C-alpha cells in the first residue's frame, strides 16, 4: 500500500541533518489569496541586528519596517543558513527594489510572528492603501472566512512525492519468512449426497473405523532449547507470635530488716584472730597503692568519651568531603552581581565581609552607566546569626574588587575600586552593633557576635549604610581596576625611593596596590609634611564645605587629594612595554602574625570614648628614622599574561639620566597559560609561594630561580582561585570555573588533586579558609552568581599528622635538589653539544686539507678490509674453499 500524500503541509519526511537547502521554495500564502506574502520567524538575536524588536521598534501603531536588501544579503554572508531570512532567500535575491517591507504579525494571521511582502506592488498597496481597496480586502476576507466555515470543499488529489516514507513502511511491515505447505483433501464423487446413518459398534472389530495415533520421537522436529527464562520469587514465611504477661492487681508491701552484728565477746575474739591479721597485712600494700593512684588522677573519667570529644569535630576521620554550613545571598539588589573578594573579620566569630560587583562587560558598563549610578556599590557584612539581612553595608564610589582589614585596627578597612581609586572606611562608631566583649577575666576576653534580641531599638535595623571616609585622587592614582591590595607591617615603613625604615608609630600606616595599568603603587595614610604649609587655604575650603555628621573625620585630610607615595613599573627589558601585575605577595618579613596576636589581646575594640590611634597621625618620614639593614625588599608578582616575576621595590639611580628607576626583575618564568588569580605564601614556610592561574597550579621556592618545585598538568577547566590550608602544610584548595574545588594533599599525591567536589553551578571567584578553633574550621567559597557558601572542613583536612610539616619540608628540599641536578645536567649536555660541534668542524677542515690521492688510498684500504671480512664469513659458513680464497687473493 502506497503512503498517502499529506495535504495542506509541505512534505518533509525524515529529518535531515546539515544546512537547509538553498533550492527549497519559500512558503507563501497563495492558497489564502495572498501570493506576495511570505511568513517567517525572527528570533530575538535577528530582531536586535535589524532593529525590529517587538514592542520597542515595532508597535501596534507602526507594525512594519523597511529593511535594506543589502543588509539582508550581508546577513546571509555572515550567518549563512543560520540566518532567519534564509527560507526566503530566493525571494530576497529576486526582489527588484532596494528596501523590503517587513511586517509584524501580532495575531499570527499567517501562522508566524513576521511576514515579508515579496513584490513592489504589494508593498505599495500595504503602505498606501486606497479606500476601495480596503473595502474590497475586507469583503474578500469576510467571504473567505464564510466559505472556509460553511462551504465544504472536497480535497484535491495531488501527485504523490516520495520522501522515503515507503522504506519505513516496508521495514515495519510483517513478511512471512517460512514457505507455506499446501494440503489437498479429496473425496470420491459417489460419496457426495449419500445418506448417513449413525450407529454404535466396536471400533476394534471393524476395519478402517478406528486409527490409533501414538506419539513417537521424530528427529526432524526436535527443537533444542538454547535459552530459557525462568522467574522465581522468594516469599518469606511470616510467623506471628504474641505473648502477654499476666497482670495482677498491684499492692503495697513493706519489710523491715536490721544488720547482723557481732556480739562484744565475738568481736573481741575476731579482732584477736590470726586470719584477720594476716589478711590486713597482705592487703594493706594494695590499698595504699590504690589510694595513691586516686590522688594522682581521677579514675572516674571516661577515656572513650574524652577521646570522642577530641576527635568528633565534624564527621569522623574517614569523612573527607566539605559540607555546607550556611550560605548568604543578597536578595535586595535589583541588578545581578558577583562576589569579587571575601575576608573574614579578624576578631569576631561568624562575621565575614564580601564585596560585590555588577556582572557586566566594559561595553555594557558604558551602555548602562546611567543606571549604575543609581545602584550603590557595597561591601556587605554577613553574620551567622542572620543569613538574610547584612549587618553593615559599606558604600563606595564604584564597585570594589579587593579589600583588606587593617591588621592594627580591624575597624579600618581599605579597598580598591574598578575605576582605580582607593577607598578607606572607619567603622569604629558602629563597632557596638556587630561585637560585644564578655565581662570576666582578661584571659577569657573574646569578641563574639551580639544576638539580635540584645540590640537596642535604634540598632535593630535590616542594614546600616556607612559612607567612606576618604577616596584617593583619580588623576594621580591607578587608571584601571585595582586587582590586589595589602597592608604593610607595623614594624617598618618605606620612603619614595623604596628604602626601609623603622616604624615608630607601631600601627600599620602604608598600603601597596597593583592594577591592570601596569603599575604598583605604595600609599601612606598619614598627612605628609608638604601638605602642612597650606593650612590657611584648606581651612577656608573646609569652612565652605559642610561635612555630614555620619562621616568620621579620621582620614578627612586624604579625601580626593590622596596621592601614591611611589610608583613602580615592571619593564619587559629592551622593549618599551611593561608587565601587567594583577596579584602580588610581599617578602617573608611582611607577615602580620605578631600584629594579629597584638590585636586579639589589646585592640579588639576601639571604643568611641577612647582616642582613635589613627587620629592626628603625622608622617614619620618628616623625622629622622633609623634605617633597617638586611631587609628583604623583594616580592613575587603574578601578571595578566601568566608570568611569575621576582622583583625588588627598591629603586636605583640610572647612570645616564640620574633619575631613580625601578630595578629589572630578578627572575621571570612563564608557567601559566592564563591570567594569574592567586599569589600566596605558605603559612608554614615563609619561602614557599603558591601561584594559581590559567589551567595549572605551581609552587615556588624563594631563592630558586631555575623553575617551580611543582607544576601541575592541565586541568579539565580553568582555575580561578586558590588558597593554602591554615592548619595542614600539605593541603591546598583550588577553585575552578565550573564550580568544582580541587583539594590537593601533597602527602598522598603530587601529580593530581586528591579529590574534586562540586560546590556550585558557576565559576568560583574567591576562596578564604578560616580557623576558629581546633574543632571547627570553615572555608568561604564565593561564586559568580553572588552567593557565598560557608563550608565546614572535615577532620582529615584540618588536623595534620604527626610529622606532616617535616615530611612536606623534606619533599620541597628534594625537589630543590632535583632542580639543581636538572640544571647541572643541562650544563653538561650543553658542553657536550659544543664539543661535538667542534669535532665536526675539525673533521670538515681535515677533509678539505687532504689530497685526492690520499682519499683514494683510504677508500681502497677500506674496500680491501671489507673483502677480507666477507671471505672469512664465507669460509666459516662453508660456502667457499681455501683454494678459491687464494686464487681470489692472487687476482687482487
From TrEMBL:
Keyword Coiled coil included in the entry's annotation: yes
Gene3D superfamilies: YVTN repeat-like/Quinoprotein amine dehydrogenase (2.130.10.10)
Keyword annotations from UniProtKB, A to Z: Coiled coil, Cytoplasm, Repeat, WD repeat
UniProt superkingdom: Eukaryota
SUPFAM superfamilies to which the protein is assigned, alphabetical: WD40 repeat-like (SSF50978)
Keyword Cytoplasm: yes
Location in the cell: Cytoplasm
Coiled-coil zones: 821-858
Chain intervals for the UniProt region annotation (Disordered): 1-30
Biased composition (Basic residues): 1-19
UniProt cross-references to PANTHER family, sorted A to Z: DYNEIN AXONEMAL INTERMEDIATE CHAIN 3, DYNEIN INTERMEDIATE CHAIN
Protein name (record): WD repeat-containing protein 63
Lineage: Eukaryota, Metazoa, Chordata, Craniata, Vertebrata
